[in-house]
Design goal:
By secondary structure, the chain is an alpha+beta fold. It contains 9 helices and 7 strands. The strands form 2 sheets. It has a 5-stranded mixed sheet with strand order 3-7-6-5-4, with helices on one face. A two-stranded antiparallel sheet has the order 1-2. Its main location: membrane.
């Protein structure tokens, strides 16, 4: 159920609207908005997890375009919702994705972006989102601080919401930068036992970067469109365009940082694969060297076995009738000479 309360001209979550009932679209009557356009008559209606009947009722009360109603009804289908800005005759609608994962110890942990809708009217603003988010509380705190120094307008409230959502991405981006720098350094000094760990970390950080890219996608275009729209009505919000330009700059910096992290991770992955290939090549060369040496030794001693086998036959062989060791010495000397010359040859050819 949506919850709203009026406080100092602002409507914000606190008490239940309708006291727990889920009224149909026809049970709402259009509110009597003040004629004066002053700050005291500014309102903010925040609706948490609205059902279809409540969205239709809001659309009828505030005379929203059918395309806006259709878009709000598809709020729960993340595949069809993207960051966007549309301007109609008497209001603007902003869709700006956020995520509560930014407030967790493990940001981006299987947390899909949550669409946050802001409908900026002439004398108020309506926000709709699927779950309770800290952005509303943070923005109300900012409004209470700024109400004495800044002229509060619907555009200014929309700016505060966009600024708060953008600011929540700064810690997650900074954490990604630190992790990416650590991975980039570890790739160059990792030991053989750390291969599985570093590959897992590279995969995790690339998933984090893709999560941030998905969350940041389209936001720069949305802020640029809002900035141009606010500049077109500068007499209503003279300073909001400057504030939005500052948020736009922060968002561009975050986007550039995430893309830079992606490039570093891609390079680290390439360096990791190159290091693995180098180690495999070294191991293969070592194995080939050992196999070559074994083949050389086999090639040297095979003829010696042949000679020894010929003289060891149970038939009459030369020197069999002699009582001295002359033939034995001749055979051993020839074998030794053959071994020495063979080793010298292979050494000269640098095969051993």
């Amino acid at each position: 159920m949506p919850t709203v309360t009026v406080s100092n001209g602002l409507l914000h979550p606190n008490d239940a609207l309708g006291r727990g009932r889920s009224p149909s679209a026809g049970s709402y009557d259009a509110p009597k908005l003040p004629e004066d356009d002053g700050c005291a008559n500014l309102f903010w209606l925040d609706i948490v997890d609205p059902v279809d009947s409540e969205i239709i009722a809001v659309s009828r009360i505030f005379d929203l375009h059918p395309l806006t109603t259709e878009e709000l009804l598809l709020m729960k289908d993340d595949a069809l919702v993207q960051d966007s800005f549309k301007s109609f005759k008497h209001y603007d609608i902003i869709c700006y994705h956020t995520s509560i994962a930014a407030y967790n110890d493990e940001p981006w942990a299987q947390e899909d972006p949550i669409p946050f809708y802001s409908i900026v009217l002439t004398r108020g603003i309506i926000t709709l989102h699927r779950r309770r988010l800290p952005h509303v509380r943070n923005t109300i705190a900012r409004l209470l601080l700024d109400e004495d120094t800044v002229k509060l307008t619907p555009d200014y409230i929309a700016y505060l919401l966009l600024d708060d959502i953008t600011d929540t991405l700064v810690p997650t981006t900074r954490m990604l930068e630190l992790e990416v720098d650590a991975v980039d350094e570890l790739v160059l000094i990792l030991a053989e036992a750390d291969h599985d760990d570093i590959l897992k970390r590279i995969g995790i950080e690339r998933r984090h970067a893709l999560w941030l890219v998905r969350l940041l996608h389209g936001k720069a275009e949305v802020l640029g469109a809002i900035e141009r729209r606010v500049q077109a009505k500068r007499h209503h919000a003279p300073d909001v365009a400057k504030y939005l330009a500052d948020v736009h700059d922060h968002l561009l910096a975050l986007t550039a940082s995430v893309h830079h992290c992606e490039r570093i991770l891609a390079r680290a992955h390439g360096n990791y694969l190159a290091r693995i290939n180098l180690e495999l090549t070294n191991a293969s060369n070592t194995t080939n060297g050992l196999a070559t040496q074994a083949a050389i030794l086999a090639g040297i001693f095979l003829p010696l076995n042949l000679v020894a086998g010929l003289w060891g036959q149970n038939v009459k062989v030369p020197g069999q009738d002699r009582d001295d060791l002359l033939y034995f010495g001749i055979i051993c000397g020839c074998m030794a000479t053959f071994v020495i010359f063979a080793l010298a040859f292979f050494r000269w050819r640098r095969l051993i």
